[in-house]
Amino acid sequence: MSEASSTRETSMETDQEGREEQDTDRGGQRLVLPEDGHGWKKYGQKFIKKIGKFRSYFKCQKQNCVAKKRVEWSNPDYIRIWYEGSHNHASSTQGTSSSAANQDSLYAQVFGSDQPAASRTHHQDA
DNA sequence: AGCCTTTGACCAGCG
DNA sequence: TCGCTGGTCAAAGGC
User: Fold this and answer.
1) In chain A, what are the domain boundaries?
2) CB A71 within 8 A of CB A31
3) Is-above-0.85 flag for pTM?
4) Can you give the distance from the CA of residue A44 to the C1' of nucleotide C9 in angstroms?
5) Does the keyword Transcription regulation apply (predicted)?
6) Hey, CA dihedral for A69, A91, A60, A99, is it positive or negative?
């Protein structure tokens, strides 16, 4: 994998739309994803043993939307959401169609407070 | 009936 | 060259 890209990490606690959805599906691992005002379609989930965390892959449902969403977590208390790409439409809740819908994307939300002091690039080796 | 979710397998890139 | 990881797609099931 590479790191160079339009993917950056920004740790900030922005739970203004904190929406919790408890899912007790089955012995699986569902998460509580905050409502972004967009429709996301989950297209994959894998466990990254490299970091010992689960990673979910979401894609914007809009056809003109190439926005992607990635979520990685090791426990329901520590979730890392990472947005990639930009939307081609204003958010459902964002009537403020500010042309800002062209941001390079990328902003992560960190839940919990067990953040490992480090916003570096994944550079670690067991 | 439609939509979304979940799991597995496959592929590609890099070491 | 092979192996491994990460990422994506596909299909099935469930609500």
Assistant:
1) 46-88+99-111
2) yes
3) no
4) 9
5) yes
6) negative
The answer to whether residues A57 and A40 touch, using CB atoms and an 8 Å cutoff, is no
The answer to whether A93 touches A63, Cβ cutoff 8 Å, is no
pLDDT by residue (tens digit) across A55-113?
Answer: 999 998 887 788 888 888 887 677 888 888 776 666 655 554 443 443 444 444 444 33
For range A19-23, the mean pLDDT: 42
Residue A3 has pLDDT above 80, yes or no: no
The answer to whether the beta carbon of residue A30 comes closer than 7 angstroms to any atom of strand C is no
Q: Which amino acid belongs to residue A12?
A: M
HSE-up (13 A, CA, CB side) for residue A47? 6
Residues in contact with A42: Cβ distance below 8 Å, sequence separation at least 6, in sequence order: A56, A57, A58
Residue A80 identity? R
Q: What is the DSSP letter of A113?
A: S
Show which positions of strand C are touched by protein (CB under 7 A).
5-10
